Amino acid sequence: MAKDKMKLDEEKFAYAVVQNFHPEEADDLKASKAILKRYLTAYYMAERFNTLEDRQFDQGMDFSLLASGIDAITLR
């Protein structure tokens, strides 16, 4: 396992997530909201990852925290 701390650039990560996302909505407003929702979700997910990563290095490697974080991720 890597011993170096990882840090995601939240903005770059969120842009990468929405770059090829094409919502199915025909209405421009609904499509814009879907893209914004996806962008913000990705941004805050990257931010949360960085916070958890910082905690892992501050507290030492506590794999139970990592496991609980992974369990909290849901796919739709």
- The total beta strand count reads 0
Order of helices and strands: HHH
Give the terminus-to-terminus CA distance: 29 Å
Radius of gyration: 15 Å
Percent range of helical residues: 55-70%
The largest pleated sheet is described as:
none
Strand content: under 5%
Please tally the helical runs, counting DSSP H or I stretches of 4 or more residues: 3
Arithmetic mean of pLDDT: 82
CA-based shape: elongated
Class computed from helices, strands and strand pairing: mainly alpha
Q: What is the multimeric organization of the chains shown? A: single chain
User: Could you name the ranges where pLDDT drops below 50 across 5 or more consecutive residues?
Assistant: none
Task: Give the key terms.
76 residues, mainly alpha, 3 helices, 68% helix, elongated
Structural features, described:
With 76 residues, the protein is mostly helical. It has 3 helices and no strands. It has helices at 10-19, 28-59, 63-72. Helix 1 (10-19) packs across helix 2 (28-59). The protein is elongated and about 50 Å long. The model has no long low-confidence stretch (mean pLDDT 82).
